């Protein structure tokens, strides 16, 4: 029977390997504390400083002895707002260790080139844009005061850190000189979370009704629900993976016995339904180990073709979608706590209307037009309950900081085309916001694209997911050189009147960071943006 | 760690010191893509089509046939001194692969896509490669989906085939005239390919007793063909219209024969090639009496000057038996050569598009109906002649000779065409 390699079943480690999160452990009310850094003796020619901003966030600053006057201020990505013991994740650790860049090698390279680096933990974890922007403003002041030869500040960040960076750049344009947005979340938080939230809702509604996924209880009970959801999600991932693999062998639908949609859709393969749900939620059909187009064996042979056509994109949705759904559980929980209740709703979402070209591209994998019609009929039926928001929570949630998309400085984006967490639609949103030639000249997008074919198969013809993630897939899955490409271009721009290089430097940077492209690419607009 | 020297001062100074001209040649500007793929001696074109997989039968001859014609042109001096290079990619008729392979063609610097095959494939390529914004021409696509003729939606794409919509209207007239009162059913590929045809049948006033949609490439599963025929037999359908690729048509004809089901088959022009179907296990007996259409002469018509020329070219540059796929490929290549010639020696993408819009109606080709390009429409040919395949596999024209029907993309009537094809230019080369 068709089975996966052992490593492929490790959904748990994959689905939550996103940027980490924590909750609730805020540093308490701001106190009149001294925010000046304490600097130790130089270490290998680098002055190492630590301190805390007045909101209690710990920060770190490192300045090389040949400091060239430019400092990189890094904002880290989303970190869970609650401890997650199965992952060994603790909020206390996160709040005690500021990350100076996405990668130690990046930090070391920047220091060796004469740049200073600075970052904080922020005072709270989870979705923390407002708090983080305030901390960053204060930290910039701290750096400039302590190191008076600071001339330029480049703000950059990963994922939510990019969201924070863009918010900082829009609100305090005079404080920074350039922005680096890596694997960016952009626009507004509702847009960012919609895809993952939709997929989580779909999994609950079609396959696993015990998932809470929404309107978590207050207090400890809610946290217990979220933890339970993570366990259910892991088990569901393994169940669906087995079901899809078995369908490939037996050719008959393999619905889990307790799946709510089984009665209505039992004649349609699970793989087709799963793919539909992924597509309607905007989940990429290429994942770290599934390219969406290849199969085992000789090209054009029945096994190769069958797997390529009907299975590969489904496994990609499984790999990507469960990672997104895992994040959705903890992020929705976090944001519900912050908003005072359920903020998210899909009462009026017309999922079928989001499926346009997808029905053509994946017609065979979706089981053909009759199967698609069956799924859509069920989706629209009263049997499929939607999720409602509480009005006060929705109002509180609406106050989260949103972006305008205005660029005041040279901005370099590093984005993967197949990122399931912050999809390429985020970057496309920013691209679309630049209407004039002058605005467009301030933005450079470095697209990180996967190769056309990269799925590996064992000698027995089974997909092998034991290797590293493919370039252009996964969340914030960049090499140090790719991240440093952002730094190179911004550092040059801030020294050249804010003008992003279009010549030799750009060519050299791209050559030194394989896998990146500046060729025109039209990111898929997030389904949220299409539907509203 | 291997890194470039990132001393920004040094880089900046170096860049300033370097000659501007050098920088300009090293780093192509994004805006100037109008001449990508063109040098003083070559023109690079690309095509994505299936060379392997269930849908490749017959269609895998199209691109090699195009290449044969281009080699013939090159051996006769090229066009405005330039030789044509055709890069062929295999997409297996899988849509996402077509997107990937077309993207690879772009990365390889093609001037234009040409003859790319498949309705869904071309739709996806147009969207994901953003042809509209990038200005990349996609010429003479191998599909009859009428949507590709709409300039506002696909400003860089040009249809060649008469649309499935038109073909279905013409089939409708044929059915009403020859099979009045009979129960009619249709099997169609469940995407824009089939949907376009359904719209044409509806416009033609055909009442369908049975409509069977199938997912592209599902025809490889034996039970799929079985289910089609069982449904049609159960519904007592007497006339079956088929809109699908040859492998799907073959699955239907073989299964029908096995189940002793003998309706009148009417098969779209893109699914009825004799050599392809027989290569897929369809016998002459199964094909005997099948009605189909074509806008090109029959591939067996050695009296036709184009067929004669193309056969000569195929003998020199190609392999395998000459059939309608090869005829189609050569004709597509000939139209491409015409367009490049018409665009003039200063060849640009925008100039190429303009040339087809303004001069495309005059391009010489084997078609028995005229091209209909204009500055407002990218529709190609506009009609078919109908034929019945006989027991020897020959397409016999409906009334003994080519009687071409034409119609429009809307509610217009089906009429007999009065078009007289101009004489072939000397040696079949663009002039």
UniProtKB/TrEMBL annotation, chain A:
SUPFAM superfamilies: alpha/beta-Hydrolases. InterPro entries: AB_hydrolase_fold. This is Unannotated protein.
UniProtKB/TrEMBL annotation, chain B:
Keywords: Signal. This is Unannotated protein. The keyword Signal applies. SUPFAM superfamilies: Periplasmic binding protein-like I (SSF53822). Residues 42-393 form the Leucine-binding protein domain. InterPro entries: Leu-bd, Peripla_BP_I. CDD domains: PBP1_ABC_ligand_binding-like. Gene3D superfamilies: 3.40.50.2300.
């Amino acid at each position: 029977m068709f089975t996966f390699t052992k490593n492929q079943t490790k959904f748990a480690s994959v689905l939550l390997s996103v940027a980490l999160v924590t909750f609730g452990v805020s540093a308490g009310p701001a106190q009149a504390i001294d925010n000046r850094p304490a600097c130790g003796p130089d270490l290998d020619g680098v002055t190492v400083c630590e301190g805390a901003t007045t909101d209690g966030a710990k920060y770190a600053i490192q300045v090389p002895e040949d400091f060239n006057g430019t400092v990189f201020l890094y904002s880290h990505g989303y970190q869970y707002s609650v401890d997650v013991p199965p992952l060994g994740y603790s909020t206390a650790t996160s709040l005690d260790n500021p990350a100076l860049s996405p990668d130690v090698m990046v930090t070391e390279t920047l220091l060796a080139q004469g740049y200073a680096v600075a970052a904080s933990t922020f005072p709270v974890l989870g979705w923390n844009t407002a708090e983080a922007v305030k901390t960053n403003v204060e930290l910039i002041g701290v750096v400039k005061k302590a190191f008076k030869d600071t001339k330029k500040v480049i703000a950059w960040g990963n994922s939510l850190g990019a969201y924070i960076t863009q918010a900082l750049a829009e609100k305090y344009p005079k404080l920074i000189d350039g922005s680096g947005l890596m694997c960016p979340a952009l626009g507004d938080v509702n847009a960012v979370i919609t895809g993952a939230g939709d997929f989580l809702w779909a999994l609950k509604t079609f396959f696993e009704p015990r998932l809470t996924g929404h309107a978590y209880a207050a207090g400890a009970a809610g946290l217990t629900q979220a933890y339970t959801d993570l366990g259910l999600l892991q088990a569901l991932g393994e169940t669906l993976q087995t079901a899809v693999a078995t369908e490939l062998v037996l050719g008959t639908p393999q619905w889990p016995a307790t799946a709510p949609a089984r009665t209505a859709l039992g004649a349609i393969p699970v793989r087709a339904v799963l793919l539909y749900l992924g597509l309607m939620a905007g989940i990429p059909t290429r994942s770290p180990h599934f390219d969406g187009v290849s199969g085992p064996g000789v090209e054009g042979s029945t096994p190769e073709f069958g797997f390529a056509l009907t299975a590969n994109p489904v496994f990609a949705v499984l790999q990507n979608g469960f990672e997104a759904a895992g994040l959705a559980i903890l992020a929705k929980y976090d944001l519900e706590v912050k908003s005072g209740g359920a903020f998210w709703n899909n009462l009026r979402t017309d999922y079928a209307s989001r499926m346009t070209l997808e029905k053509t591209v994946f017609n065979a994998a979706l089981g053909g037009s009759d199967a698609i019609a069956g799924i859509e009929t069920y989706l629209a039926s009263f049997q499929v309950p939607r999720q409602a928001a509480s009005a006060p929570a929705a109002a509180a949630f609406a106050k989260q900081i949103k972006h305008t998309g205005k660029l005041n400085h040279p901005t370099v984006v590093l984005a993967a085309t197949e990122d399931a967490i912050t999809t390429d639609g985020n970057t496309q949103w920013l691209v679309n916001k630049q209407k004039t030639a002058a605005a467009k000249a301030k933005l450079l997008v470095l697209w990180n694209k996967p190769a056309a074919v990269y799925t590996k198969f064992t000698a027995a013809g089974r997909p092998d997911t034991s290797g590293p993630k493919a370039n252009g897939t996964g969340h914030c899955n960049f090499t140090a050189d790719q991240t440093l490409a952002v730094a190179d271009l911004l550092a040059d721009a801030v020294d050249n009147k804010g003008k992003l290089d279009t010549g030799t430097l750009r060519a050299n940077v791209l050559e030194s960071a394989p896998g990146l492209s500046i060729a025109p690419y039209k990111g898929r607009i997030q389904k949220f943006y299409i539907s509203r | 760690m291997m890194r470039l020297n990132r001393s920004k001062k040094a880089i900046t100074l170096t860049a300033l010191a370097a000659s501007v001209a050098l920088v300009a040649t090293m780093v192509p500007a994004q805006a100037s893509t109008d001449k990508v793929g063109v040098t003083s001696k070559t023109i690079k074109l690309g095509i994505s089509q299936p060379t392997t997989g269930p849908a490749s039968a017959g269609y895998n001859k199209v691109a090699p046939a195009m290449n044969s014609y281009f080699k013939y042109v090159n051996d006769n001096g090229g066009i405005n001194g330039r030789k044509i290079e055709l890069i062929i990619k295999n997409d297996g008729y899988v849509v996402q692969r077509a997107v990937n392979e077309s993207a690879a063609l772009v990365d390889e610097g093609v001037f234009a896509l040409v003859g790319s095959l498949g309705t869904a494939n071309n739709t996806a390529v147009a969207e994901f490669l953003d042809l509209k914004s990038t200005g990349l021409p996609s010429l003479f696509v191998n599909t009859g989906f009428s949507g590709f003729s709409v300039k506002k939606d696909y400003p860089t794409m040009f249809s060649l085939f008469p649309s499935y919509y038109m073909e279905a209207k013409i089939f409708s007239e044929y059915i009403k005239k020859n099979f009045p009162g009979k129960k009619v059913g249709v099997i169609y590929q469940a995407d824009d390919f089939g949907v376009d045809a359904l719209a044409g049948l509806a416009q033609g006033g055909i009442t369908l007793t049975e409509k069977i949609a199938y997912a592209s490439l599902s025809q490889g599963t034996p039970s799929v063909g079985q289910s089609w025929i069982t449904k049609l037999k159960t519904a007592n359908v007497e006339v079956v219209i088929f809109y699908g690729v040859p492998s799907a048509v073959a699955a239907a004809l073989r299964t029908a024969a096995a189940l002793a089901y003998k309706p009148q088959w009417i098969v779209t022009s893109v699914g009825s090639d004799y050599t392809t179907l027989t290569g897929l296990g369809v016998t002459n007996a199964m094909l005997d009496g099948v009605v189909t259409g074509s806008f090109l002469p029959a591939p067996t018509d050695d009296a036709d000057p184009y067929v004669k020329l193309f056969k000569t070219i195929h003998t020199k540059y190609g392999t395998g038996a000459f059939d309608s796929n090869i005829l189609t490929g050569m004709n597509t290549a000939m139209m491409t050569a015409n367009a490049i010639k018409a665009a003039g020696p200063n060849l640009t993408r925008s100039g190429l598009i303009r040339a087809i819009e303004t001069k495309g109606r005059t391009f010489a080709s084997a078609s028995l109906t005229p091209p209909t390009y204009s500055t407002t429409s990218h529709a190609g040919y506009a009609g078919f002649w109908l034929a019945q395949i006989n027991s020897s596999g020959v397409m016999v024209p409906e009334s003994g000779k080519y009687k071409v029907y034409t119609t429009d993309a809307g509610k217009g009537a089906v009429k007999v065409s009065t078009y007289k094809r101009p004489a072939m230019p000397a040696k079949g080369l663009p002039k």
